[in-house]
Each structure stands twice: as C-alpha cells, then as structure tokens.
Amino acid sequence: MSNQFKTRLLFSVVMSALMSFLMTGWVTWLNLGFGPDYTARWMRAFLAAWPAAFTIVMLCGPTVQRFCQRMVAPAQAR
C-alpha cells in the first residue's frame, strides 16, 4: 500500500469521523434538544452516519479536490 493511499485513507477516516460526530451532535440537539437520552441518541446517529460519510469522502474526495484545484489555479495565474 503506497503512502499516498495510506494518507488518503487516514484523512478519510479522520475527516468523516469528525464531520459525522459534530454534525450528528448538532442535528440531534436541533431536533430533540438536550434531554436525558441526548447522548445515547447522538451516538446512535453518529454510528449510523459515519460509514456513509467515510464512503462519500473516499469516493468523492478526489473529484472535489481536483475541482478545488481548478477553481484556485486561475486565481494563482493573475
């Protein structure tokens, strides 16, 4: 396994975990408030969201990165 792939895989795990953790916490709070079962509901939502987020980052990440590079490249040419 190349270092480039290892880096992409680690980035995908960390980024998807962070985004899923924060977003599910936020949305759980918006929808349900801070009730006695808030943490349990949040963790349930997080565990459901993380695999989907990881898959999306792995599949869409390279395309989004290329798109962003193309968006920035014309600005650098000025």
Task: Give me some keywords for this one.
membrane, 0% strand, transmembrane, mainly alpha, 78 residues, transmembrane helix, elongated, DUF2798, DUF2798 domain-containing protein, 88% helix
Write the layout of secondary structure elements.
Elements: H1 3-32, H2 38-76
Helix pairs in contact: 1-2
InterPro entries: DUF2798 (IPR021529)
Pfam families: DUF2798 (PF11391)
Protein name: DUF2798 domain-containing protein
Descriptive notes:
The chain has 2 helices and no strands. With 78 residues, it is mostly helical. Helix 1 packs across helix 2. The mean pLDDT is 92.
Number-wise, the strands total 0
Instruction: Assign an overall shape.
Output: elongated
What proportion of the residues is helical, as a percent range?
Answer: over 70%
Termini distance? 39 Å
Keywords: Membrane, Transmembrane, Transmembrane helix
Pfam families: DUF2798 (PF11391)
InterPro entries: DUF2798 (IPR021529)
Protein name: DUF2798 domain-containing protein
Brief summary of the model shown:
The chain has 78 residues and is mostly helical.
